[in-house]
């Protein structure tokens, strides 16, 4: 790291900083400019708290040189991770993942019907919510355990992996016993206890970006999971909060190439939650694939106006079919397949 | 609610909307403009999902008329809530609350020393973290149960209520057995399972605003807690995420008068997390009180550079004493006391 | 518009609002709910200031029903505008526009060389800055009049339209005498005097979205230009300001379908300014085209490290050639051509 | 500045960077870490374009050490600037400035009446708009030259300085001939030609923060003005754009202590534009003064519902009187006066 001293830092202050760094095993290399002195410090940052230096007399700022995550970083693992999610499906390779299904599991018949439809149109992973995070305490919260059973039945019938969210540390074991992929929702991206808990399972984790999380914070959340021994993390960009109100969130399309530069983990685009409006789902899904995402997650419902949640952003089966046809062409144009 | 139809909505589309609304017990009042028709609908919104109407043919948008929260709303309870937090202390009245202490409980001796100092300077509630949410999985996570015991001892010795955070549904019972006030941190403001769980306790809840939460979402989080029967919710503005990087977050000072217009719940200002820099803590604390907050939460540490967490934003005891002296004058200037 | 009254609005207050609306020629339609009264008002909103009603006793809020822009709106003109920018090039049709060139015009030889290169690779419009808005007063501000002459020479030699920015009302006449397309930069999107002035020319206007402008504000800026009689406005999405710092701005890809729903004006994607980093330009350009943009504006420089400005986001000619090859395939995949 | 090399940077790449820096007169000090090499470079940054180094092979990033502004910086001038704005009034000293008046100058009689009222209540500078930036091209744009005359008459009659906005380089001479203080509005904070032009006058400049400008960009805008020889710049915080919609903008109260740490220029709080709602003006004004602002700018109108613009955020005279009474007490509490 680099310690930047104030313009008027005294020699004794500089010496004190060097001394403290040395005490923690750092080698120091001061550079004396005309106005400012900076000190390069080489050593193991984990041995010292930043504030221990930052708050010393004469110190203006500290510039870290290394990214804060390790296991998620490309520095550790250069080749891209291809994650086996079961039932013969992988995420991160040349074949794009398409996770589709209704927002919530609303009932057995309905979910099975939707599952068959999305499979027929080319989806290779089923999505659905059994535990639903809802802004209002009075809204439908999901079928919980019953929903998990329904999803499992559909996954088995159609030989497809299922992806579903867990919201509570107490439910991790239950969800892990049914799901092929465990989803951490945007609102729980920094629920650190939950991250640790899913890190202890052997299931791939689908990690949505927090509503207003930076890319660094997101990769630190992945690091939490990986630090417990679970390397199978799949990132999902689902839109960030900005001042613009014409869409529910703002899909950060450049997060796709940025994460691909920083991490070996695959990334999926979720145009449904990003836009909150079925009219914009297809253009944003196409944008995500064209930008290099490893797949999409999209909400499909045969009767959006009857959907228990997120109806306005759900695609009807025929619109989903149109989208899949377009995505196939775009995938081919960039040398991938669906 | 008001249903706004598209410019070219057909008579049959308008009729269909009215019919569906009527089916759910709404009275409808269409208003035919030159270009647009709008339909006023009177009834119980909880009987219908918005999307059921929004996605009908010819519908452009729906404008809700009522706020989504009820128990937290001033419509239900006009007079301000004054919350008894134990040990003779209340929040929401004419006497301002001052919650002070180190970010984390670091050890018995240290916490007791800090507690005595902040009490001597005029704090009336002790704060400290036993369970710490940390961005990095490799950082100090708190003393957990041991930290709770230390806080309780300090609270009892000094006859002061203690406020500490819970991060996991599995720890609610434990934390509730020690704490006078249970804190929900910014990162867990939409951890809905946790909100429900603390709503089942009989302890006052200190609800921090989410990192990028709107005021409406914040009050809906309060509603979650209150919907379980716990009316004792204290709001805490701790800065929101914006594009500005010279402070850790941006303290939203206008959230103080805005919440006071919308809800009967008291609101506390947290200048420490808002700014992330001890230099700006005092001006922002004074701003919060001048704007009408019911108190402040502030981090105090006798050796910020040794602090296990949040050292850079902690006030040294002498700076805390200066701040308290200033706040007393400002409180007096606006007819309150500390 | 809809006037929402407070819960406890008195009959006399409702009557007073209706009376004032009637005075301005509005028809009023009150709807009496259990708790709230709302008043539908039909008439010409331009006859009245909103605040004249909003501030009346008993009024809680006003909800406008119509969008604030007219000329830019699809309500006025349903079919998409195809704008003739000279030299046989149009923007808004099936053939995508590619505006390319260096950020600044740095000299005659260099610009001519770059112009020939980008034309050879398939660009059909030349871009370059003669007047440069720079954050620092000490940075290169452009060749001004000399730069315009160089661009014109290149445009004539290659039979291509040229697009360049104007920053000052005093320069509009000069720029209009050289340029085929006049650019309004992001920082001047709400420089209303400048908008009016370019609205008086007969040149197409390339209107960049403001750094933190909503889509409605952007379309109101277009309305300013159009209200002076110039209908030839081309929108350009160039990234918005958010909290994320890994890119210079956040490219708002959903602005493409959103504007296409609201306005008949064409929209161009600018991945260079959006990302600020050459590594992310190609993925974001592809995303923009896949989402339905009418073209791209991209900075190309044969020696980015020598560029007078915006070097870090400039593509080298060979990378531009690669991008054009990819874009041709994506354009074909969505039924367009380059 | 510090050049950070990639993990795998080759010796030859490091040597090439050092060589180029040396060519521009920099002394270089490489520090070789276990994984990364960083190079400290001492010299005059203005001699080199950042991109010339940033884009070299093996370079990961550059960290500037010095702030980009000089004249506005405390490094150049430590003591706070006290700016003489005429008629015996100064801004930046112990006596707080109160700029008050209607948003727009609407007519001679009205403005004179308002001016007398605000003076009677303790305002010491008159504000009013003769040229009005309006989001809609169809809205009232101000009385222009006629408005300037009216303001001058009021200023002379009451012996008060007047502050009014200029929006166009062509109007600078005219506005400077009437006004005591020239305002640059938020939308023009990066209208660099206008900044240069007002920098050439000898009038104090009232520089509003841009709608979404960082504090660094704001101080660079001040630097533009000062680089033309005009040192009399007064900053004005008027709220920034965030995702929160319950106020028109979010008043960034911490910008007050932050700018006071970085610059010698005084800073004024504008609660009217920050909140957009008269109900929140007083609490935010008090917060600004408590946080250390050098004064406030506030809109006052005797008939807000008749105001040509910004009625909803204007205080009625009696509310302004109440605010002044409160501010006097708060000013006294922090050792200042009004």
Q: Could you walk me through the main structural features you see in this protein, from its secondary elements to its overall organization?
A:
The first copy, chain A, is α/β, with parallel strands linked by helices. Helix content of chain A is 34%, strand content 18%. The longest helix of chain A has 17 residues, at 317-333. In chain A, helix 3 (108-120) runs parallel beside helix 4 (145-158), helix 6 (192-199) crosses helix 7 (215-227) and helix 10 (278-290) runs parallel beside helix 11. The two termini of chain A are 44 Å apart. Chain A has an 8-stranded parallel β-sheet. In chain A, strands 2-3-1-4 form a 4-stranded antiparallel β-sheet. Chain A is elongated, with a radius of gyration of 23 Å. In chain A, strand 12 (233-237), helix 8 and strand 13 form a beta-alpha-beta unit. Chain A contains 11 helices and 14 strands. The mean pLDDT of chain A is 94. The interface between C and D is large, with 47 and 48 residues.
